[in-house]
Design brief:
This protein has 488 residues and is an alpha/beta fold. It folds into two domains: 2-253 and 472-486, Glycogen Phosphorylase B (Rossmann fold); 276-466, Rossmann fold, CATH 3.40.50.2000. The chain has 17 helices and 17 strands. Strands 3-4-5-2-1-6-7-10-11 form a nine-stranded mixed sheet, with helices on both faces. Strand 3 (53-66) and strand 4 form a beta hairpin. Helix 2 packs across helix 3, helix 9 (279-290) crosses helix 12 (365-374) and helix 10 packs parallel to helix 15. The chain is globular.
Length: 488
């Protein structure tokens, strides 16, 4: 079937988080399954143009409504790791040095949403599936059904994926925002359309996408359930319960052409589950790179964006707790908040003479790969985590995850003490509450197992490597959804 992905991001060209990896990885796998897939993204000035093959202009004047005028945008086509991708200009809206974080983000992405549909309309692209992602493309289903259906384009079905419901596209000047792209009248200020359920006189783009889409997915079954509760729904729980018959959770995959310890050319030594002992050569290389002590100690690592969601206080606690438990600790990450970075710089300076800790404020792709390969345990203490990719990568590399039981972490990591799962299924250490005591307990169980029961520890590690964490299974689930809504 013909599928068009409409997204604000695609890795590695315009990447902020996991959404970009999902769009690329899912698109590649669907193509391998025989589907025709296009991706449409904004043409940011800050993109990695060196990661695009054969970029060339394919549409010179894409007239797109913008308040009381029509603007002529350009459309370029190129290949991103083999995926045909269209890039739409947006004047000042796309001439930016980052993807998000501007006061006019709502206008930027609503304009892009209309431009993407206008491009498909004028080039007579009629995908069977339009798959849009997160709040930035939340108006796509509304525009499609309220404008383009009336123009004779009625064969497409729309899937909307919620990667993170923390940002929903709230707008207190909805008349102006919707009017910019040709949607008029107070008809949208009702609960069964775009009116936000928690704020008066406010529209919610994600809410509109849930109402108008043919199917809504999120990135793990547990998170799909959490979103239907007051604590996890962030104001959308009532709506999602109403539309629960078209809501589903699918665990993300990882791109195994990039994340594969058997073939990864960024690590010191390749290995697999059968040659697991070779993994420890990467531990030596990691210690040499970061100048950690060569001691009989486990390495606990964290690779993350340092945001509130990721459990910053628990990460700080884990640094000291790991050292107290005779382990070594590595952190690779940075925050969009300078104050958060400053806090971790303070800890880095405080522990600068300790041979068992290294804190790297920033990001380094080669180092990230070696951390996954060379560490013994990988910590993900998120306060909430719709899916999570880092724990999937750590599992594939045989690095035992220690995670909080939430969202996709609960769906992918099974505690070593879970007798119902059985010895051949458990693959990590899990704690429930986001408290120092629970974190310490999980860390202690993991570190003690490493010291006292190495055979059990290695079995837990290789259990994680045994499962297929690629996009093969998730893509089949999406294919089933596409076929389901096509038949309705």
């Amino acid at each position: 079937m013909y599928i068009v992905m409409i997204s604000p991001e695609i890795a590695p060209v315009a990447k902020v988080g996991g959404l970009a990896d999902v769009v690329l990885g899912l698109s590649k796998q669907l193509m391998q399954m025989g589907h025709d897939v296009d991706v449409i993204v904004p043409m940011y000035s800050c993109m990695r143009y060196d990661k695009i093959e054969g970029l060339h202009e394919v549409y010179e004047q894409l007239w797109t409504p913008h308040f009381n005028e029509w603007r002529p945008e350009k459309v370029f086509e190129g290949r991103v790791e083999g995926v045909k991708t269209y890039f739409i200009t947006g004047g000042n809206y796309t001439d930016r040095d980052r993807v998000y974080g501007y006061d006019d983000d709502l206008f930027r992405f609503v304009y892009f949403s209309r431009a993407a549909l206008e491009f498909m309309q004028k080039t007579e692209k009629r995908p069977e599936i339009i798959h849009c992602h997160d709040w930035a493309t939340g108006l796509v289903p509304v525009l499609y059904y309220d404008i383009y259906n009336a123009l004779g384009w009625d064969n497409s079905r729309v899937v909307f994926t919620i990667h993170n419901n923390e940002c929903q596209g709230l707008c207190w000047y909805g008349d102006k925002l919707l009017g910019m792209v040709g949607l008029h009248g107070g008809q949208y200020y009702t609960p069964d359309r775009l009116k936000d359920g928690s704020h008066n006189n406010c529209i919610n783009l994600m809410r509109g996408a849930i109402v108008y889409s043919n199917f809504v997915t999120t990135v793990s079954p547990t998170f799909a359930g959490e979103m239907k509760t007051p604590g996890g729904g962030r104001g959308l729980d009532g709506l999602l319960n109403k539309y629960s018959d078209k809501l589903g959770g699918i665990i993300n995959g990882i791109d195994t052409s990039i994340w594969d310890p058997e073939k990864d050319d960024r690590i010191a030594h390749n290995y697999n589950a059968e040659t697991f002992v070779e993994k420890y050569k990467n531990k030596y290389a990691l210690r040499e790179w970061l100048q950690l002590a060569d001691a009989w100690k486990p390495i606990v690592s964290v690779v993350t964006r340092l945001t509130h969601q990721k459990g910053l206080d628990l990460i700080k606690r884990a640094i000291y707790s790991t050292l107290e438990k005779e382990g070594q600790f590595i952190l690779l990450g940075e925050s969009p908040d300078a104050a958060v970075n400053g806090d971790f710089w303070r800890i880095k300076n405080e522990l600068k003479d300790c041979p068992d800790v290294h804190i790297w404020i920033g990001y380094h792709e080669d180092l990230a790969h070696l951390i996954y390969a060379g560490s013994d345990m990988f910590l993900v203490p998120s306060l909430f985590e719709p899916c999570g990719l880092t724990q999937l990568i750590s599992l594939r590399y045989g690095t035992v995850p220690i995670v909080r039981k939430t969202g996709g972490l609960a769906d992918t990591v099974f505690d070593a003490g879970d007798v119902e799962k059985g010895e051949d299924k458990v693959n990590g250490f899990v704690f429930d509450a986001a408290t120092p005591a629970e974190l310490d307990n999980a860390l202690w169980r993991g570190i003690r197992c490493w010291f006292e029961k190495p055979e059990d520890f290695n079995r837990i590690a290789t259990n994680g490597m045994a499962y297929d964490w690629s996009w093969k299974n998730p893509a089949c689930d999406y294919e089933n959804i596409y076929n389901y809504i096509k038949a309705k």
